Automatic annotation (TrEMBL):
Domain Aminoacyl-transfer RNA synthetases class-II family profile: 1-317
Protein name (record): Histidine--tRNA ligase
PROSITE patterns in the record: AA_TRNA_LIGASE_II
Species of origin: Sporolactobacillus spathodeae
HAMAP family xref list: His_tRNA_synth
Length: 421
């Protein structure tokens, strides 16, 4: 038997209502904050991620699904959304749009060849947002507020915002030199990847999964001590804006993130996830990415979160989402003539916006009521010989058990008045 690939999963019909609900809340939240949806391809040129996410990152070095198509093009299943959004921003010259900053969001599958565990999948779904074209520290705060508002709308309470700044290129250069000096004498004790990263990108040593326990990690120079006055001032402004809107945070100078494009603000939102990975969302500012990908100097900031980790957090906080996928009305028919009438009524109900269904397996009336129960139908409409003779259906309210007779041609209006969606 052929099985599903490792690290992937099926969203089965009993669960897809929850996914739809989450996506609906994501879209609502983006509308509140005035972010518009962008949809980009699931595969892109491999070069895009090598340049965008960074050649020395774990994502590019170890986790990408790369392939060559029949035209010998080097392509990659996208491991994240920011590089694609920036590519589209440049390709469609959105920097010339009169409406600035350009505020975008996306929901879709991402792919990383990681070791699967709870909250770590090889195909996962990200909801992310990006704001391009503004350096205002208030937009960093807006991005964080958007993510938190989304989580709170879904009912999550145990959230912690962790904040850091990676500074500007000058701060980064000073920090880079300090890191090289710190690690160089003992670099032989580190894995081969870290040895290679030392000169290329020493910041990446700090998020190495193999060497994270090495004592030199804890004593490594902190970026915060190398921020230029300008970068420090920028970070202060972000914090002041968060303070002003009542968003609390913890500072963590070790928060460097796993992608190369960040500078200035970086952040993660942590949640209660039992023993699973607790980072629910991550993001930050990336002022150099647009020009790196061939566009004009343009500031950017964004975040992404996965629905998989959100589901774990919802479960550990004991939150069940109301999905609203229940049936309004189930038609139970007894006898061949009643069947025919039921088929006509069923079509009418649906045309009138009532979610309705009937039996297609020739079940007895008891079986039809059972089916109605399984669908959590709000009403059951019974049609037998007597109802046919009177021209009325017997409508049973499944919540309180009450029953009423309603003329066939009034059933739609009757149910429409009872149902509110
Ligand atoms: P990231 O930290 O690599 O950042 O991923 C963001 C979020 O995606 C994580 O916090 C986590 O919720 C989820 N995630 C990542 N990998 C997996 C996985 N294997 N399984 C399940 N969930 C996962 C980015 O992707 C950046 N593009 C975020 C960003 C947008 N920065 C600026 N704009």
């Amino acid at each position: 038997m052929i099985q599903i690939p490792r690290g992937t999963y099926d969203v089965m019909p009993e669960d897809s209502g929850v996914w739809q609900k989450i996506e609906e809340v994501a879209r609502e939240t983006c509308a509140l904050f005035n972010y518009k949806e962008i949809r980009t391809p699931i595969f892109e040129s491999t070069d895009l991620f090598q340049r965008g996410v960074g050649d020395t990152t774990d994502i590019v070095q170890k986790e990408m699904y790369n392939f060559t198509d029949r035209g010998e093009r080097r392509l990659t299943l996208r491991p994240e959304g920011t590089a694609s959004v920036v590519r589209a921003f440049v390709e469609h010259k959105l920097y010339g749009d009169p409406q600035q900053p350009v505020k975008l969001y996306y929901i879709g599958p991402m792919f990383r060849y990681e070791r699967p565990q709870s909250g770590r999948n090889r195909q996962f779904t990200q909801f992310g947002a990006e704001a391009l074209g503004s350096k205002d520290p208030a937009i960093d705060a807006e991005m964080i507020a958007l993510a938190l508002t989304f989580y709170r709308k879904l009912g999550l309470k145990k959230l912690k915002l962790v904040l850091n700044s990676l500074g500007d290129p000058e701060s980064r250069k000073a920090h880079r030199d300090a890191l090289i000096n710190h690690f160089k004498p003992s670099i032989g004790e580190f894995c081969s990847d870290c040895q290679e990263r030392l000169e290329k990108n020493p910041l990446r040593i700090l998020d190495c999964k193999k060497d994270h326990g090495h004592p030199l990690m804890a004593t490594a120079p902190s970026i915060i001590d190398y921020l230029t006055d300008e970068a420090r001032d920028y970070f202060e402004q972000v914090k002041l804006t968060l303070d002003a809107i009542g968003i609390t945070y913890e500072l963590d100078p070790t928060l460097v993130r796993g992608l190369d494009y960040y500078n200035h603000t970086t952040f993660e939102i942590m949640g209660a996830t039992g023993s699973a990975i607790s980072t629910l969302a991550g993001g930050g500012r990336y002022n150099g990415l647009v020009s790196e990908l061939g566009g004009p100097e343009t500031a950017g900031v964004g975040f992404a979160l996965s629905i998989e980790r959100l589901l774990i957090a919802l479960e550990s906080e004991g939150i069940t989402l109301q999905t609203g996928n229940q049936l309004d009305c189930y038609l139970a028919a007894i006898g061949a003539e009643a069947e025919k009438k039921a088929a006509v009524l069923l079509h009418q109900l649906r045309q009138n916006g009532i979610r309705a269904d009937k039996d297609y397996l020739g079940r007895k009336v008891k079986g039809q009521f059972k089916a109605a129960d399984r669908e959590q139908a709000a009403y059951v409409l019974v049609i037998g010989d007597e109802e046919l003779a009177n021209g009325q259906a017997n409508v049973k309210n499944m919540t309180d058990g009450s029953q009423e007779r309603v003329a066939f041609d009034e059933v739609s209006t009757y149910l429409k008045n009872k149902i509110n969606h």
